[in-house]
Structures are given as C-alpha cells and as structure tokens.
Amino acid sequence: MEGISNGIPVNNCSESEQLVKPYVPLDVASELVTRLYGLKVQSIKELVSYDDKNFHIKVLEDYDNANIKELCPHGYILKVLNAKDSQCESIIDAQNAVLNHLTTNKTVTCPRPILNKGGKFKSLEKLYGKSTEGDEPVSSERPYAFYIVRLYAFIPGKLLYGKSCPVHVWYKVGLLCGTLDKALKDFHHPGYKQVDSLWSLKQIPNLVKYLHVIKGPKRKALINEVIQAFSDEVMSQYDKLPKGIIHGDFNEQNILLEEQANQETAGKDYNVVGILDFGDSHYSCYVFEVSIAIMYMMLEDTVDPLAVGGHVLAGYLKEWKLTDLELSLIKCCVAGRFAQSLTLGEYSYSLDPGNEYLMTSAKKGWSLLENFWRVPKAELYSTWKKIISSYK
Are 309 and 323 in contact (CB under 8 A)? Predict the structure, then answer.
C-alpha cells in the first residue's frame, strides 16, 4: 500500500528518509532524457551533489522534441531533485523563472532551463528506490517516491573548487555576486514566498537543535557562541536590512572559471564566467549573499584567508552598495555561515556516512572559523578597508 510519511509518498518503506535522495542508475537517467526530452544519449556522467542527482549528458544529433530549436553544443545537465524539495513545485517554478530571467537578459551566465516534450520546464516522475536484494526487476514490492526532473543547457568551464587562484579572482567573484543581486533587484515570483530553507542565514538561531552532532566541547562551544552573537547582533536588526532575491549559496562548487594564461607569471590564471545551482535561491538580505561568498572563498584561499573579505567586498561594492548597518554585520554573518555549514554538514553526514562531499567545508572550516572569530572586528575591518581602497 502507498502511504504518506513526512509528506513523501512511499511504497512499502518504513523509513522515508532513505528515499529522499533519489536512486538513479545511469540507465534510468538515460531513459528519462529520451522519454521526457526526446534526446538520444551519446554519453552520460554522474556529478557530485549534496542531496540531488545530477548528470552531464551528451547527445546525438537526431532528436524528437519540437520545443528544442537547436542542440546545446556542450550537452546538458539532467537534475533529479530530492523527494523533499520535489514537493514544492511552486518554488521550482520560481527557480526556473529566475534562470529564464537571467539568461534572457544575458546579465549573468547561468544554466538555461530546457522545455520537455510536453512544453514544461519540469515533470514529476515516479522512481524506485535501491533494492536491498541485488538488481532484481522493478516490482510493486520496491519502495518508490516522486521526484521533479529538469534539464539544463551545460555551461563549459572549471569549478572554482580546488583551484589555486590569485586574489583578483576573489574580486571577480564579488563582482559577479554584486552583478547578480543587481540583476534580480526588480525580480519577483510568488513561489519565493513559500521558501523557508534551513540554509537561509536567518535560520542560524535554529542550529541549536543540531548541536548534538558536533564532536568535542570546544567546537560545540564555538558554534554556540557564534549562534548567540548572530541572534543578538543580526537578527535583532533583521527588519532593517535591505532584501531581495539572492542566490543563497555562492560557493566554490557553484562558481565557474575559465582558465587563461597569466602573462606576468607565465602560470595559470582564471576568469570568473558563471554561477550554477539556484536551488537555494530565496528572498532574503543582500548582506547574507556577500557574506556567504566571503566564507566560501576563505576556504579556497591558501595565502591569507582573513584578507579574502576585502577582495570580495571590493568587487561586490562596485556593483551593489551596502549600508553602514549591513557592513557592520558582515563579520558576524560570515561566521554564521561557517557555523551553519559545519553543523549541517556534520548532521547530513550522520544521515549519509561515507558521502565525503557533505564534509567539504569541514576540511579547513573549523580552524578558519576559530581564527576568524578571534580576530578583533576593528582589526579585520581595517585590513578589508585598505584592500577595498587598493581597487579604486
């Protein structure tokens, strides 16, 4: 019998959590692309993902979809959304609308949604869970759930993650971040009224519910201290902070680079060319957006992570201005994102042990947060101010 557990339709499955992240073997992914989009798969590669399933698809020239005028030369990204987020169809509509807005106006390079054979940007598909007894044929005894399936044009480039970048790349990241917020300042969609993500910075006070996953009293005390400061300093001013639609996850896994030669050093250099994954986009504070970007770029810097904020802010402020109140809260917001990423990463890993992607921030995050949090605010801001001035 089919039942409802936590709002997720399941079949003969006592634990719906095991069905939240979709089980999509390569042959199932290929079948979805052909059946829904009329494309014939030439090659397929699974990509890393937090809680969805993503695939890079290359296709043959022959296709059967009147809504596709010409094939994307670099292929496509098939995205199978997790079961929990698949319940929020209006939010997915909002995300597709944002992407169409940006790609139509050509303000920011981001994934372009592709219409399926039915003329829709998404469909809800019934997919079966992984069998506990090998690869027996799909049957009514197998657990299943419903997942939203989408297709996007693939954007060529290299992820920022793991690259040794000169500091001007952090400036360009800030520039892209500010350009994006500027491009979306007049964008509205009713679907965003329903977004209440655990990854929104305004949810940081609720991290206390997950402190039990933090190992060691020192780390737990640090997270608790940051949560308390965020509640006192930021949330008390929340209503005064300018807001709009933000990307919400400006991290190293979502930023695309183009490799180029560095004429001065004869080494590698990079240009920032695009932003991926609007799955955490929502209506929130602009200061949260740039603070998130600063935190993740600190993780990637190998020379002086504490100075990164100055470079990111220099780029951001060229496109989008912040009030004195917003500027005064950035340190606390950056620390809040560290706390959020580390805590939720630990919690997700406890549910999905072995998924090392969930622990990406933890590799350097704990030591960075401790060092960052202990630096006096006046000293940090003085360093950032000098860096910002150097770009003028």
Answer: no
pTM value is: 0.88
Residue with tokens 């695009």, as numbered in its chain: 274
Catalytic residues, by residue number, are: 249
123, 113 Cβ separation under 8 angstroms: no
In sequence order, which residues have a C-beta less than 8 Å from that of residue 193 and are 6 or more positions away? 283
Distances (CA, A) of 386 to 8, 177, 383, 391: 52, 21, 5, 9
The two structure tokens encoding residue 374: 């202990």
| 313: Cα within 13 Å, side-chain hemisphere | 28
Decide: residue 252, CB within 10 A, 0-12 exposed, 13-18 middle, 19+ buried: buried
| Binned average pLDDT, 10 residues per bin, the chain of 392 residues | 29 43 94 98 91 95 96 97 92 96 93 97 93 55 89 96 93 98 96 87 96 94 98 98 97 94 70 95 97 97 96 98 98 98 89 72 90 98 98 88
